[in-house]
Amino acid sequence: MVEGLKVINLKKTFKLSAKQQKLEKTKDKVRKAVDGLSFEAYKGEIYGLLGPNGAGKTTTLRVIATLIKPDEGDVIIDGLSVVKDAGKVRGKIGFLTSDMKLEAFFTPNYLFDFFASLYGMSEDKIKSRKEELFKMFGIDEFAEVKISDLSSGMKQKTSLAMSILHDPDLIVFDEPTNGLDVTTAKTVTDFLLRMRDEGKTIILSSHVLSLIEKVCDRVGIIMRGKMVVEGRVDELTKEKDLETIFIESAREVEFNEKRTNSN
Amino acid sequence: MKNVLTVIKKELKRFLTDPRMILALVMPGIIMMVVYTSIGAIIKNIEKKTTYSVITVNQPAIVASMPETQSIETFHKTIPGSVVDIGDTTKEYVLEQIEKGDVDLLVVFEKDFWDKVNAHDADSSVPAPKIELHFNSAKTDSSKVYSMYSMFLDELEGAMIAINKFDIDLKDTAKPTDIGIMLISMILPGMLVIFLSAGSMGVVTESIAGEKERGTIAALLVTPIKRSELALGKAAALSIASLASGFSSFIGVIVALPSMMAGVELEVNMYSAGDYFGVLAILISTVMLLTLLMCILSTMAKSVKEATSFTGPIMLVVVAAAFPTMLGMVSSTNLALTLIPIFNSVQCLAQILSKSFNVGYFVMTIVMNLVYTGLGIFVLGKMFNNEKIMFRQ
User: Of chain A's two ends, which shows fewer C-beta atoms within 10 Å, N or C?
Assistant: First the structure.
């Protein structure tokens, strides 16, 4: 198996404002969002990242996408470091999260051209790639409609197309089926499987365990910024389903934390 | 550079696609035009006034030795309305009329006024004749005509002292357009820079902080474009939009100017092509600097609302910088003043518009504005690279 991504001892802390300290009922001035996280994902594999809210999933994905820098550790993508080669890494990854939006005033057609030119694609390449992706997601029907006038499903399809327009080797998706109807969600899962078959490395973060079970080859459950369970989905789910594993892991982490605090 | 142009094109398209932004670009000009035209119309209306009713008692006869321009008779003709002499009769009835507002002013001269004037000598015991002015200070018209009359009498008294001693012949060398130039150089520089700031504020806060608030900036930040290119592209596009907005306000004022300055002669050819070029060069360099300043503050904010509150104080600074020229304070010699951003631009505009153009001041102002703008681009690029600023929660 060829390594597509390697996360090495990743650490990231955030300073807490007085307001946040009050909200989180803590006296700590910093919060460890990611605390020594390591894992690998391979080409032609979908790696599922699971964890409760605040576990550090989004922070990890943002580090991978070069939006934020780690305090310690690194992420290596095709031999490039997200810390040292951020600019080059950006050309190799396709990133999509639910809090990333497309500008409402433009049409999918215009946005595709705009983002494609930022990736340095030639006009011919833009044209052929647009035809391919618009056909794949059925965007042709609403290519000239403003984003503000599109339904959630149409917007998500457009976002998916934009995130992979440069044909990236690594695809990082955070909750890609969030708020989508069954038909659109199926388009997304079909797309993920197709990308895997094309040899892409895919990191998928989601709260929808059925989606993870259905499409992921391997899964990592992170809690409090640390990896608590990792393995192949088919092996992990031989005796218990993913939901049970997730809940048991959460209880164990909580129990260990209480025991540490009382000591 | 290609990426910068791509960002500029996209930002400008965004302004032209969003009706709210088009409105933000055009509305200031329309508002300025409507407001200033209305102000002009109101002032004109106030100045038009009505007619006054003045009653005199024992109005002195015309004196042949008095120049016609200084005679009571001639002055009475300049008062809109009626001036009626009722001779030496009772004034009580007229006083009641003044109280009611039917009559605006009663002027009572002593009998044989001129004889008593001639007989009076400051060194002798012969007193000067009295003139009583009865008016109602609670009535605007009465107060106005009283002011007019008392001013005339003051001038007349001065003329009486100088009469037959010397003649005053005033010669104003100012051309009719010079007054216009003076007024324009006092009013326009400050107004222009204030309009540019207001225009810049509207588009910049919406663009950068708005993108952060709407979550669209992240999509740009994950592309391979350098953050400094992104910052430059945005700043350049926003400068163009701000300039358009400022220009719209400028046009609004120009259209309303004749109405605002009713009676002052204004001509397009009061200024040369060089003057217009100078104004344009200063405006472009100033708008770039203002936009960069607003961009930096807008980038620090996490929402449009916060950005608006951050950029608000800049307006106060701009008004403070514009204030001296509005009082006619224009310095063309002290080049050290060109180090003060915004103030240097207002002063330079005032110099050009008052026809006291100083090449050194002009060049220094442009250079300093460009230096500050360059620094601003550097800072903005650094800010776009700072995750704490770009993803502030």
Answer: C
